[in-house]
Design goal:
single chain, 382 residues, alpha+beta, Aminopeptidase, OB fold (Dihydrolipoamide Acetyltransferase, E2P), 2 domains, five-stranded antiparallel β-sheet, 22 strands, 20% helix, globular
Length: 382
């Protein structure tokens, strides 16, 4: 349902932790440069303002604040409030670059609504360049909405959710695959919810996987609270992948157009669109033997039934196991580490119907299908 926001309103958030947040270099967005580095105590971003702050959500072992970088852009015109979050898992970096670019490229004069850009949610994990909060290996994406008096990760999650996410109308949470794997660019969404389905379609990725989200994930908690939220999965951890980052920025602009934050921009259409339902066939293909893995699918993440996915051999090449596609589908995720033991996941395959297959084959023939091995792996390192 379209929400009406006829008048611009201040974005207000709790000052929060024992130490006040700090303003960082405001650039040309209306904040007095003389305030640089000083504590800012009002907790209000007025219409027409852009604030860049470091917001404390905890303390480290030295008693120094753990501060997350946040940009809040409150447009001159009224409209919805959208959050963009990244680095809930600290080694998933593509989304960090997406949020940086979103925060930088728009101005209050052009936005009809408010953008809340949570650049790095799990700062301790980000600094350690690992997935989970260090020491106790706590997963922030199983910790929302968090608790004010609980473990470190739940306290950070609580501050992020209560003071920023809960004040938004919709949101996009950016992730990548975990280490040693890669994933096709896609969205994940509870497609039974019409508000979430609208958001997922507006983001304009070719593939949307159905799911409510795990308990304690930002997506599931926010959606249950009436804040439609999708997860965007894109590529590999520990790197920037420019092609995927640019696609995500196009998706963000399409969402802003759909919800009239950018009322003069068009909503994108990806060409072909595949969604799954609860009973859709998708399968992780797993290794039955241990050894060296030679991936053979590609250059596009699209395979026909019976085509080889990979070959597993022992070190003497005396034993060989060819893993083939059990059905025609899209390779949603794949192993990047070239060794495996029995049970290790090799490939996540999603069945597609003939109409989608024909459209993909047409795009391949016309050079329009930008699959994630289309140029070998060189594009991953651009």
């Amino acid at each position: 349902m379209e929400q009406s926001h006829p008048e611009p309103k201040p974005f207000e958030f709790d000052i929060g932790y024992e130490q006040a947040y700090k303003e960082v270099d405001p650039g040309d967005d209306g904040v007095d440069p003389d305030d640089l580095g000083e504590t800012a105590g009002d907790g209000v971003v007025e219409p027409g303002e852009k604030r860049r702050i470091r917001y404390p959500v905890g303390e480290n072992y030295l008693g120094d604040p753990v501060e997350i970088p946040i940009t809040i852009l409150n447009g001159k015109h009224g409209g919805p409030t959208v959050f963009f979050s990244a680095a809930i898992h600290g080694d998933e970096l593509n989304g960090v670059k997406v949020v940086q670019e979103v925060a930088d490229r728009y101005t209050p004069a052009e936005i009809h609504g408010t953008l809340v850009c949570l650049h790095v949610c799990n700062v301790p994990a980000y600094e350690a360049q690992q997935r989970y909060t260090p020491i106790y290996d706590q997963d922030m994406n199983r910790s929302f909405p968090g608790k004010e008096r609980s473990n470190t990760t739940e306290r950070m999650a609580n501050a992020i959710y209560r003071r920023f996410v809960s004040k938004c109308d919709l949101g996009i949470d950016f992730h990548t695959s975990t280490r040693n794997r890669t994933t096709i660019y896609h969205a994940r969404a509870d497609l039974r919810n019409p508000d979430v389905e609208r958001l997922a379609r507006a983001f304009a990725s070719n593939v949307v996987l159905y799911g409510e989200g795990d308990e304690g994930s930002l997506r599931s908690v926010a959606t249950a609270d009436g804040i439609p939220t999708i997860t965007v999965e894109m590529g590999r951890a520990h790197r920037f992948q420019p092609i995927l980052i640019e696609k995500a920025l196009e998706g963000v602009e399409s969402v802003l157009a759909e919800y009239r934050l950018l009322p003069d921009e068009p909503v994108h259409w990806p060409g072909w669109y595949k969604t799954t339902s609860a009973d859709s066939e998708k399968r992780w293909l797993r290794a039955d033997i241990g050894g060296l893995v030679d991936m053979q699918w590609g250059p596009y993440p699209f395979v026909h039934e019976g085509e080889p996915i990979c070959t597993i051999t022992d070190h003497f090449k005396r034993t060989e196991r060819v893993v083939t596609a059990p059905f025609t589908g899209i390779v949603v995720g794949a192993l990047e580490n070239p060794v495996a033991a029995p049970g290790h996941p090799l490939c996540h395959l999603l069945r597609i119907e003939p109409e989608t297959r024909d459209e993909i084959e047409r795009e391949i023939q016309q050079g329009e299908f930008d699959g994630y091995r289309a140029h070998g792996d060189a594009w991953l390192e651009e």
